[in-house]
Amino acid sequence: MAAEITDRFSGFLTAAGGRQVQLFAVAELLMAGSRGDHPELTPPLLDLASELLAEPAEVVAHRVGLPAA
Questions:
Q1: Are 39 and 29 in contact (CB under 8 A)?
Q2: pTM metric for this prediction
Q3: What is the DSSP letter of 40?
């Protein structure tokens, strides 16, 4: 599924604002996860945020108020 999303939206994700769009989506999904919606997505979302921000996932988790992994 991730590969399909990447293929379909690669033009948007690599455009000038693609990083910001991805960070916005990750933040929204992490907030949903913190409310109990699809908590299994939290680790991969933290990994993606970590990659986008060039920071360790633990730092990202702390910034968004999630417990460290």
A1: no
A2: 0.76
A3: G
